[in-house]
Write a structure and sequence with these properties.
Elements: H1 18-24, H2 48-66, H3 75-94, H4 96-100, H5 106-127, H6 148-155, H7 166-169
Length: about 170
């Protein structure tokens, strides 16, 4: 059995750009002279490579919700949510004193993310065919609960001793 190739978060089709993050926190795109540049560059704080790292973190968090591979119909929202996470991490990492005093957009961005996250996961579950490898559709809304028949079988000692399999007693 071979191990699948690891996903490269730098090449996923739904990866946001530094411009996508900058669109959310435009006020943070200032150069050393205080001029608003409109995107992150080597002259801003944070720089564009630093924001790229935060984008990778955002992609990993989205992948933790739905996996790396999902239908293209959900790419736009995945890209948007990953950009929001990157913007939040930018606020926390580079402007923590402003986050603590509510002089940052962090709270509003995080609220936007949390409000959209569940709808995104549900949407991906709906458009991902059940039974496909990695499908989250079969994982959402299910609980591992014994049926009444299974509970009865355990209560009365079936499938416990003597090597009897529960599937021999009831159809599970």
């Amino acid at each position: 059995m071979s191990t699948p190739e690891p996903i490269d978060p730098l090449t996923v089709a739904w990866r946001p750009t530094v411009d996508d993050v900058a669109a959310l926190i435009r006020a943070r795109t200032k150069d050393s002279s205080g001029n608003e540049v409109g995107t992150f560059t080597d002259k801003t704080r944070p720089t564009d490579p630093e924001v790229e790292q935060l984008i990778t973190n955002g992609c990993a968090k989205i992948a933790a919700l739905v996996g790396w591979d999902f239908p293209a119909d959900a790419y736009y929202e995945a890209k948007h949510l990953a950009a929001i996470i990157a913007a939040c991490e930018c606020e926390l990492s580079y402007f923590p004193e402003q986050v603590r005093t509510d002089r940052s957009a962090f709270t509003q961005l995080w609220q936007l993310f949390t409000e959209d996250r569940d709808a995104f996961v549900s949407y991906v579950a709906q458009i991902t065919p059940p039974g496909t490898d990695g499908s989250i559709a079969s994982k959402l809304g299910t609980l591992d609960v014994m049926s009444g028949t299974v509970a009865w079988a355990y209560e009365w000692g079936y499938a416990m001793p003597y090597g009897t399999k529960l599937s021999d007693v009831v159809n599970v």
